Amino acid sequence: MTWYTLLMTEKPSFLHTDIFLDSGDPAETRHALAELGFLDGQTTNPSLVAKNPMILDLKSKGALSESDIWDKYKIVASQIHEIIPHGAISVEVYADLETDYDTMLDKAHELASWFPGIYVKLPITHNGLKAANALVAEGVNVNMTLCFSQEQAAAVHAATAGAKYGQVFVSPFIGRLDDIGIHGLDLIKNIVFMYQAWDSHVKVLGASIRNLDHFFGCINANCNIITSPKTVLDQWVAHGLNNDPINYTAEISEKQPIPYRELPLQDWVLYDIDHDLTKKGIEKFASDWKGLFS
What residue segments make up the domains of the chain, in order of their start? Predict the structure, then answer.
């Protein structure tokens, strides 16, 4: 019997959403698991790995090569997997705005070999979707990240057609939409509604969670998964794990709503997937990653 099995308790009866930790630090995984009594998975990305204490300590002692960082990333991901062996762990392919399809696909194959069941994160770009199309046909799990529009989510569904249910995640970023005055939770609601209408194989993973309004809003919108920083999980514990979020009163949002759109189910290349926030997110991840070895 593993330490994970000993700690696991039943989720609150109301909770049909999987709870992930958004972190690049295995110590936080242990703390979150001990605090909640369960943890369904974890998401990582270049920015989070750049904050990992082990990597920061090594960087402070001398120059690290990009190969060194990938080796350490594998160690970090494997440690997380050991703590939650039945959890879904996401690791991200490095990609900037110029990364081509072949480079993305080669790196995805490498990451997918780290341990069974791993999810490879790819950006929702033309090359990212093209790589996802190839990977799911091979049985690789993918997490399509930096989603900021319903059309991007539609493209993920179409590009990964034929995948098994749960083999594909799409990660809409709530907080970053809020930052520009747009009601990010509306995007979650719209994608969930669209996917239900399409009987989609893709699971919706609420990301960029900043507070309990986001956290409980995702649960009440029937989001499949939430990935949350440790700070918001701490807030949930303080609020009371067994308090049904249906009774939670969120602040009234004055942000711009996102109207639902009736989109056609069509070839993925026909959707408009361009979004400034996706580009900015890719640039931020690339900068944080390169900052570790440059």
Answer: 3-9+22-290
List active site positions.
121
| pLDDT of the residue at 50 | 82
> pTM of the predicted model, to two decimals?
0.94
Beta carbons of 199 and 176 less than 8 angstroms apart: no
Please report the beta strands in 32-166, taking only residues with DSSP state E, as ranges in sequence order.
Answer: 41-43, 88-92, 119-123, 141-147
Structure tokens belonging to residue 248: 């939670």
One CATH from 3.20.20.70, 3.40.50.300, 3.40.50.970, 3.40.1350.10 for 3-9+22-290: 3.20.20.70
The two structure tokens encoding residue 241: 């794990």
**What's the Cα-to-Cα distance from 80 to each of 30, 91, 170, 206, 286, rounded to whole Å?**
8, 11, 21, 20, 23
Residue 247 DSSP one-character state = G
Q: In 3D, which of 216, 219, 210 has the Cα closest to residue 176?
A: 210
**Residue 157, Cα to own-chain centre: how many angstroms?**
16
Q: Which residues pair with 18 in a beta bridge?
A: 225
C-alpha 2/C-alpha 83 separation (Å) is: 9
- Tell me what pLDDT residue 252 has: 77
Q: Which pLDDT band holds residue 47 (cuts at 50, 70, 90)?
A: confident
